Amino acid sequence: MWLNQFLLLGALLFCIGVYGVLARRNGVMVLMSIELLLNAVNLNFIAFGAYHGTPVGQVFALFVIGVAAAEVGVGLAIVLLIYRNRSSIDLESVDLLKG
Amino acid sequence: MVAQNIFFAIIALAMVASAVRVVTSKNILHAALYLVVVLAGIAAQFIITGAEFTGVTQVLVYIGAVLVLFLFGIMLTRARIGREESVDGDRRWLAGVVALLLFAVMAYALVDAFDTEALDAQNALEPQSTQMVSDAIFHDYLIPFEAVSFLLLAALIGAIVVARKE
Amino acid sequence: MTPAVLFASETGAIAAESAGWFLKNAWVFPAIPFVSFLLILFFGKRMPKKGAEVGVAALSLVFVCALAAGAQWVSHVNSETGGHGAEPSADTTHEDDAPSAAAHATVKAEVEPGAEQAEQVHHVVHPVVTEWKSDWWTIGRIDFGIGTFVDGQAVMMLFVVGLISLLVHVFSTDYVAGDIRYTHYFAFLSLFTASMLLLVLANNLVMFITAWELVGVCSFALIGHWWEDQQNSNAALKAFLTNRVGDIGLLIGMIVLFFTAGRGESFNIIDINVAAASGAVSHTALLVASLCLIAAVMSKSGQFILHTWLPDAMAGPTPVSALIHAATMVVAGVFMVARLYPVFFSGLSIAGSPINALAAIGAITTMVGGSLAFVQRDIKKVLAYSTVSQLGYMIMALGVGAWTAAMFHLMTHAFFKACLFLGAGSVSHACNHSFDMKQDMGGLRKYMPRTHVTFLIGTLALSGFPLLSGFWSKDEILAGTGGFGLSEGANGNYHLMLVMGLMTGAMTAAYMTRCYWLTFLGEWRGADSPNAHHGTHGHDDEAVAVTVLAHHDDHAAEHDVAGAHDSHDAHDAHAGLPHESGPRITVPLMVLAALATVASVANIPAAFSFVPASWRLRFEHYIEPKSLYFPKLDHSEFSPVIAIISVVASSIGCALVVLYFRKVQAGDPKATELTNGPVSRGGLPKLAYGVLVNKFYLDWLYTDVIVATVKGPIARGANWFNKCVLDAIVIGAATVSKRIAGFTYAVLDQQVVDGVVNGSGIKAAETGGFLRRMQNGRVQGYAALMFGATAILAGVLVLAI
């Protein structure tokens, strides 16, 4: 097995996730795409950990899983709040920053 | 090794296909279910590389907890169950361009740097035991670990504060 | 916390063997109040005394430990210097046979050139350094560790902080009794103390900055304790934001030190000090670093032009003011200069020069603070400006090389200023929680005998009355300036500093006499006396009205606010005349007054040969570091001439004020100012008064001039940028193209170029329309830009490397 097959898979997942983050209008779907990003990163951690033969890769993957759990919790709470205030989670209608 | 490669290829194909469906499906519930496939695939890849503990944690946390959270989120925002035409923005082409550009750069960099380096050349793919992982977490990385636990606590409180009704 | 678990490679206590337990385990000092903070925060409300008992117990423990540490430090110094010998003897071998000592361990190889210097240092007293290195935080060659660095200076601060904080805790149990956030208040007092102790014991710059910021946060919380009132939360914000200004200086200064004196490897204070003292670091680097750090001192220690937050910080409860002004917060800046003294000593070329930035800032601050204290009606503000002035003294002392004098003054000032602040609190406790001396006080001598006596002692000590502690410490500073050759053995010849110091001495005596007189002498003018507001509509208000900007002068509003909040219902029994406060208020006062009286024995001048040698200059002997990490200082001798001049100056200042009030109160014992005094007659006195009342217009300068001129354009600029910069670029491009086109049209073949030019113009306008859409406020659009830009930049980097 190559190291690169994991890394390229991770890169591909990451880019699919980026596409999702940018293209989706639904807040929950954006959050799902962010999960793809985080998992792609985890795959890299694990692959490099195996490559160097240390458990540190796993340790950081576990940290990322923990942080991702926190992120989903807060993210969904924010989406709920947006929904409650605007009766919609369409991110294109959230444009208060418009210049 | 061949068996591992075959497994890798099958799982990777399934993952990429599902991931594409996650970001293109018009049905939000289907997207969530495709996400399960991707996450399970990630867990399988972890196990292939010998990171069993992390793989199991991945299944527990992501498929067990995060996915359920997503389903709750979908339910609470009263999304339509079924096809919905307005889930995609009108500038998908820009997103596609950016993603392709990003992938091109990353793929070039990775191939350039690691080319065909074997994963198991220097360190035979020994499963890294859970003991090693726990030793690392609770010895060298104790303070980051505590920081993560604090972060979770803060996120818990923050999520409650943000989401509760006045 | 057990180091063995947290840090794999505990480097162990590299402390001298003779050092006692408290010196090696100094982490207990910040740990105790921190634990107390957590206990009070989480369980305080359920405790019988609402958490106050935990705070008082913790601080008692800290104080006892500080005493023990002090005793152990004394024996440590004695064992390192070989007994009580006051006469320094060339004991250089001692340096070599103390292999376990800290200076050796930390000084490492880089100080081999400093070895000759070591021979000049007579008694080397090694500080006690304990350090834990971490495994998991290593960047490059830098190991981030935490540790404690205990030397005489730290031990002295432990004692002062522990004592003042304990007394403030005891005082507070009565003073803020019944407050709505009583528990919260005690929790933050504990955290405040913990932060200050951490700052005192920090052995590297990272820890130091952390503690420094923690102190700032706690002061923010405590100044804004009664945050319901806009005034108070504004004061807290002002304190915090003014400190941020200086913190930038601190950060830059520390970074400069890290890369020069620390050679990019070490944050360790001892390493940096040794490098700075040995002359191995370029002078320019040290100069830059010390100038940056001076900015931090200016904000934290309330030095002139950034001192404006300090008087406003009076919005906090009075015990907090006492704590801030005596032991924590404002002395942090002085402590920092003293801690990194070699940096300043070399960077500013303190030895042998007539003036430098540090001394000048200190001297100006003493004058500014002293003059502003004259026009305050609020007793706490008088004391606040007095603190500004006295901190200026300390900074000036450090600036002229009188390190020991500065530290000594820090200690004595802590005693008498805490005494005065707590006394002011006691007074306001009795006077319906007002702080207005002219309106609600006067004649309190009869009603509050214990407060009166302690306040008088504090006043005398601050004014430099002979034989009280303030006299000795101030005299040491003045002698340390070495001005006009009046004192022997000073480091430089700072004539100007001596003059300004003496003038401030006279001013100090004068404004403290005024404060004392208005508060304790004359007749009571409080709310219950028949004509309460008699004579208070004086020239204050007129003078203010005359001045162009009367915007910040709202004495009345301020003290009404403070009064309203200070009045926490439990003392509604103020129907009659003022009364003496309870023992929990008066006992701390008496302790502090006693210390303010006797603290002078700590540093009896060497010239007093009638005192046994082992009693003279004890402070200098035990507190001043004698090691490679400290510059070789000269010590000035006690100068009778300066002492006499300063006493005469103070007496004149005092006498003028006494004469003035005699005249004022000759007809009416309740009057507070002359009806036709110079201020009301206009002209120069009136102008000067207006300037003083408006605090030299500094607040006006900051808020109305600097902020207003900067804020508007920046906001408009940002708006303009957001809205039309892209359009403008594009339109500009189009215009330029069109001009070029016109030129070409006239000169070259119009038929050929015309189409191209029009095309480019149109294209440019179209691009503008397209680019304008980027600013559409959609988060995803911005994310797309971010990802795209990252990809392009990463691609450039990958291809370039």
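qc> Chain A touches chain B through 74 residues (CB under 8 Å).
qc> done
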